[in-house]
Amino acid sequence: MKSDYFKTCMVLMVTSACLVSMQSCKPKTAQSAARGDATKSFVAPGKYDEFYNIVSGGFNGQVAVYGIPSGRLFRIIPVFSQSPESGYGFSEETKPMLNTSHGFVPWDDQHHIALSQTKGQHDGRWAFANGNNTPRIARIDLTTFRTSEILEIPNSAGNHASPFITENSEYVVAATRFSVPLDDQNGDVPINTYKQNFKGSISFVSVNPTSGEMNIAFQIRTPGVNFDLSRAGKGKSHGWFFFSCYNSEKANTLLEVNASAKDKDFVLAVNWKKAEEYVKAGKAKKQAVKYAHNIYNEKTHTASSTIQTEVVVLDPADCPDMMYMIPCPKSPHGTDVDPTGEYIVASGKLAASIPVFSFTKLQKAIADRAFDGVYDGITVIKYEAALHGEVVKPGLGPLHTEFDGKGNAYTSMFVSSEIVKWRLSDLEVLDRVDTYYAIGHLSVPGGPTAKPHGKYMIAYNKMTKDRYLPTGPELTQSAQLYDISGEKMKLILDFPTTGEPHYAEAIPAALIQDKQMKIFKIEENTHAYVSKGEGQAKVERNGNQVHVWMTAIRSHLTPDNIEGVIVGDEVYFHVTNLEQDWDVPHGFAIKGANNAEILIMPGETQSLKWVADRTGIFPFYCTDFCSALHQEMSGYLRVSPVGSTVALHFSTGTNKPVVSADSVKPSGSASGN
Ligand code: K7E
Ligand code: CUA
Q: Exposure string (b/e) for 639-660, b if CB count within 10 Å is 16 or more?
């Protein structure tokens, strides 16, 4: 379908047709059109990359980590999706991470990354990631590259404008893509009562400066529009947050047409310092809701999930001057704030120009009351009064903008498949470069901070068409690396990505690489089922539950012979990795496990549940090739029928019980044959 459409595009070459359909129309063949400069992306074997690139995984619900400039993939971090590779979401300890008010939700649609900041710059502590589908925000610890926390967002139905962050990580935000009836109201209403019953909601989620722990500080009720993207103010605009929204028409069907009817939608400017004052002054009302808050504890190696039951909500009607609507042409997608905090760039997907607003002018417009009426109770600023100017004829389908810290902006053009470089001061277009194809987000290392690192720019493309060896009906998505150190942007590398990449951030390796957690100290392990040495390994029965305290060290599991398990028993293997060396995980798997294997880091304990559903001998083994004798790192579990008198036994290195004539007979065989 994609390539058929592509051909049609090539024949038609009618830009307006492409624009209306919002499909990419790129009339070139990739292989002849661009060549990379391999020397610039070459990182010699054994050498390190300059940047970590932390990239959203889209509908795979995960986050991937690449090196820049090499494009090498280092790690896929399971966040919202279960991962059989690590056992995340399968082990007893990590299952609670995926708990929500809807129960266990082992998947999400992950679009945006926000790295923690101090004074407007990356501090290398945490990466935040949104779950777009079942509204959630996750926090990834950049010392372990693992998910530490997941917070569900109530009164939301599509957490898209999230988790953008303020300049000292005071807040990450969550604004709903779909307006819906509020959680504490009867949602059983006709869909065509959208205008009366559907409301929007923005959450300000506080981040504890020491632990990173997230909490919903307050929510703001908004008109029932669709929020798309957002950015915090910084520098002079610190204290403000900007949210793009579309569907100011409040359409509930055929949005393609009906949410594009009006000439302008809005950027919502929220004065969150003022909102804080209103909360302090008691203006926020309590609302009964339900949402899960899940935290992983690195000492017990266990996650806990708590269902919270209340949020406090500000109604703009009670909070004058807290927020304003700035008109913005044609269904804006990205809204991005430049490094100085002065310029707010809003990209109307269907607009022919890119409006750039000035924070100074916005403040003046508010002071001068340069207003243009009211939208659903929110004061609308006069478009021209807040406008710095428009980038004229930038390309087709502008989506997202990043900055290089040298006064330039780079905007991705989905429809015309290109990146356009333009100057913030006079809005002049300086350069344009092709992408292959249909670019969504783009990322300059440090681009959303007050001090971008410039040098590189990465494009995240939705389609690759003829760019790679084909792989059946679906082709890879990909990223492309550009050198932006000179006046002209230069393509230097293509690299395929896992999942559909949306936003990504890149951070200098030096901010992270020396802080890596190498092992978990075994003496600090307070897991309820830890064995801190082989002497503590044991097997105990509790009703029909059998708990196995197991240890793993090169190259054996203790115990490695277990008998006395009965059909119907639930067996919990609590495996402690006794190693205290970097990068020596052991794995654990058993035949017939209907969940996954688990991978246990040095000093860590993880548990796999397995149900004995038939009699027999079940081998278990280490899944991670850990030593020359890794294949020997294995054992056997015997399952006997209901009513069997085989006692619970476990051993390693000795045969227990002592082999007797009785026990050599298969338990299922008839006697006397
Ligand atoms: Cu992909 Cu940020 Cu969800 Cu634009 S959004 S592409
Ligand atoms: Cu442990 Cu292989």
A: bbeeebebeebbbbeeeeeeee
